Amino acid sequence: MKGLISFELKKIIRKRSTVLIIIAALFICLSSIFLGAMTETSYINETEKLRGFQAIENEKNLQGQVRGYLTEDYIKQINIEANQNNPKYWGVLPAIGVQEVRIPNIISDLNSGNLNGIYDHILKGPSTDQPRPVGTNNEVKQLTNMYEKVRGPFYFDYYDGWERISTSFSISIALVVSAIIVICLSPIFSEEYSQKTDAIILTTKYGKNKVIMAKLMSSFMFTIAIYILFVTVNLIFHAVIYGLDGGNANIQIHGWYYQSPYHFTFLKLTLFSMGLSLIGLLFIAAITLFISSKAKSPFITVILSAAALYIPKVDVSEISHTADIVLNLFPINIMNATEHFEIGVFYNLFGFSILQPIMMIFTAAIISTLLIVFTYKTFKNHQV
């Protein structure tokens, strides 16, 4: 079996198209990291600012000076020393406001049954007539319990390295790495049809069992290897450019997560995002393999798999809240994980309220398992 897996894995890796697309994807990811770093800005005062790597070092120094838990005593000290014209305090003052005002107000709204108060302030800026969730009593109760744990005191520090790692990685996995998987796995079964080698495979001793298993296992091994490659590259280059300070800072001090109910540090956010990204990547791999077992050519497989990957990214939130949260269970939205920790979204399943990340894992696991079984049976029962 090991020999068959090794053979199928080499078939994927040794293709010229595989090597070229991996190199292109690495170039795109590295370029986005460096271009992002070059656009960073930091103010010396109200009128003077730095750019690029100098800005990163300046922000690291400024925010590092006020790092610490935002306890009552520390907040009093900051309020005494703070000068609105001093960039040293520009990052910590909004974090204090979230801890002292925003989170308590959310808890108060939830206790009064006003779930939509949260949606009035999300950064996507919904219109007043945008569809909203109804919010069951169980959901409100769960959200209230989550926000109670987030009350604080928050830990403040320079967190840009970890925040960029989680955000940049989620986007690159969803848009770039997933394309590698779709293109490289599309020929796994459909190429056998197009080259008429399916007849040879299915009549061999292991053609209807071990060969199929070897194709499936090598495909998922390739997917995980590509994922590890891009995790490593992402971590190394962000660590070199931004550093890894602030891993234990609370995500609520960041503008996107200022009303998040998740009691996460930036390190925990990064780990959860990477975990969801891997699950989403394995999900699209399973979809691609299933389509490949059905399609007669790799080209058709690529087109259909790309459609299954990218179409669910269409924003339908202004049309239907239900349709929006259903599309969020598709691979590309699971991979773009950092978007889903801004607010608490629930799915009602058989009377149970399930948080969105948990629902994503559950859905991806169930559907991927079914697709793998269907893929195996489709190729095995294929009539030559």
TrEMBL record:
Keyword Transmembrane helix included in the entry's annotation: yes
Membrane listed as a keyword: yes
Record key words, sorted: Membrane, Transmembrane, Transmembrane helix
Sequence intervals crossing the membrane: 20-38, 169-189, 220-244, 264-291, 298-314, 354-376
Top-rank taxon: Bacteria
Family annotation (PANTHER family): INTEGRAL MEMBRANE PROTEIN-RELATED (PTHR37305), MEMBRANE PROTEIN (PTHR37305:SF1)
Name the UniProt record assigns to this protein: Response regulator containing a CheY-like receiver domain and a GGDEF domain
